[in-house]
Amino acid sequence: MQAWITMAWYELIQILRLRSVVIIMLILPLFLIFLLGTVFDNQMKPVQVAMHIADRGPLSKEIEAFLQDERTAGLMIVKFASSREEVLNQLREGSVDYGFIVPEDFSEKFLAGGEAVWTAYPGRLDNENLMAEETAGSFLKELETRRAIMLAGAGEGLEQRTESEEIVARISTEFAGEGKAVFGSVSAIQYYAGAYLVMFLLYSGMPAALSLLQEKEKGTLARLYAAPQPFWIIVLGKLTGTGIFAVLQAGIIIVFSWQIFGVSWGNHLGLLVLACLLTSMCAIGLSLVIASIVGTSKATQSIFSTVTVLMTFLTGGMIADLNQNVLNIGKFTINHWAVMTIKRIMEESETTVIWQGIGILAMITAVLLILAFARLKKVVSLHA
Amino acid sequence: MSMVVFDEVVKKYDAALSVNHLSLVIEEGEIFGLLGPNGAGKSTTIHILAGLLGASAGDVRVGGHSIRKEPLAVKRLIGLVPQELAIYETLTAEENVAFFAKLYGLRGSLLRERVAESLEFVGLLDRAKAKPATFSGGMKRRLNIACAIMHRPKLIIMDEPTVGIDPQSRNHILDSVRTLNKLGSTVIYTSHYMEEVEAISTRVGIMDRGRLIALGTKEELRKQSGQEEKLLLELDRMEETMLMEMREHPRLRSVMVTDAQTLEVVLDESTTALQDLLFILHKHGAALLKLSRVETDLESLFLQLTGRTLRDRG
């Protein structure tokens, strides 16, 4: 027990004393999460809109449903006003960026074949104006399309066929482009926080193999073998040290991104920790398997880094808006299952859904660790 | 009392025998020098003894414990100074020693005391807080030794501990070996450097191609090999007829003029050879100004036994 603790402690000390490791493994992920998350979040920051719906006709409920949908909220945050004056007041005060009024006869005119028009009150900011107009415009355009279909007699009545969720989804896809739809139901910064947490957790598993190989390359392995301790305790201690570093790294990324960048990690802390641990153990297993094949620390480092970057890329960790075919290939990576599980935790999905992801991650971990264990002798043998 | 007993130890790598039925007893309190060229099986022997490698057959007992049956008990008795610098560059000198000491079960005040003692012994106590990256090659070698002696082992194995260091550090290490031996440790010392082994060893074993080909004190080895005696004679005069008579004498194996007044003569083992040599000098009226014996070194002994030098490869 004491030897195990000693090994783990000194392993951790040695990792933390390498300045390059601290910079790359602890500071770089925070910087990347901030950089990418901020860039993409700026492009899709929702516009504040004041809206007065004077119409009490058959379309008013549809309009309200669209505006109140949480996915619309990612593009346009609506403050309902009781009158035109209130809309203008809010615009003047600067509490909103844009104003809309849905005319009293909107439903009546529209259903009679008239143009779908809301009265618009642009604000002072061009980008926000554009965003509000595009969002509302997409909705109105969709209504017109549906009306055309109805008039052509190809379907049922407009009221029955207009489904707000479908419209919202279409608007999101068409308008947002690189916005929220690309990242699914999480924000850009959440998306990148999850992707980079997984990528750097994978990196944090690499020192396990490198450290064992370097013991051999630098001659200290002989002295460890000569120590009056079962060798498996020494190996376990070293792997534990790497594992502690990974937990530390995950903790720093999660706490910093949450406190400083406002990333929401959901409310299943225990499951999040479990997902991180499994990802880290996957990485340790993978690094040992690679080390057992290539045999040197330099080659292991190169191959493991390449594999990690490739897996991150294939799962959209670098470019979110990847071709679906590429993303399909990404499903065969550790990152896919780790990121998906973490995203589900962020989304606060049902626990059973999160456990499904964790279960698959656990199976991948088990396979990699069994392979690593079977080939460990190749890594730690003095005379191989 | 026997400290180390090798009993018919064999180590095979595929078909090749790296250690070939080695039987050897090293007594407590010895400084045992193990010599041999690269590939002779020295390191494999050392690794089997230290529990780093399993023997294909046979057994080794250290302090009465079998390496096969009680490997941890054997390891507790041993301090290994590997050929490579087995120290961590990211840890300070003190942390390096403490780390290995903890693996030997040392804790608390005893740990602190032994760490300081070891560093003081190798002359690095004042650099305890420094990292090895700032050390010279000799200082790193000394730290390498400190990491092996902090648990006061009964048997210290030093595998080429002076490779690539300056003469001052080498002397420091050799003095350390003698001191450790005086303090009660048995030492097994391997080296390529003949003079080191000759200087400190109480007994020497010579290995070649996995076998122990010679064993004993230096004197015993010389006698075992039936080696001739080499003399240097400084004369007042040198005559060709005298030299011819010497070269024709059956008990004088070789006669060589090294300078105007000096002869190098190799005698056979008979007790009368020297007497015959002196007679020839007297007959030719040559006065002997100085007579000295050329000491037989282990290098030439090894050459005689194997036909190779100790630094030959393979």
TrEMBL record, chain A:
Protein name stated in the entry: ABC transporter permease
Domain ABC-2 type transporter transmembrane intervals: 19-373
Subcellular location: Cell membrane
UniProt membrane topology term: Multi-pass membrane protein
UniProt entry tagged with the keyword Metal-binding: no
Subcellular location, principal: membrane
UniProt entry keywords in alphabetical sequence: Cell membrane, Membrane, Transmembrane, Transmembrane helix
Domain of life: Bacteria
Pfam families: ABC2_membrane_3 (PF12698)
Chain ranges passing through the membrane: 21-40, 189-210, 231-258, 270-291, 303-320, 353-374
TrEMBL record, chain B:
Domain ABC transporter: 4-234
Listed Pfam families: ABC_tran
Gene3D superfamilies (UniProt xref): P-loop containing nucleotide triphosphate hydrolases
SMART domains tied to this protein: AAA
Top-level taxon of the source organism: Bacteria
Keywords, ordered alphabetically: ATP-binding, Nucleotide-binding
Protein's UniProt name: ABC transporter ATP-binding protein
Record GO terms (molecular function): ATP binding
InterPro entries xrefs: AAA+_ATPase, ABC_transporter-like_ATP-bd, ABC_transporter-like_CS, P-loop_NTPase
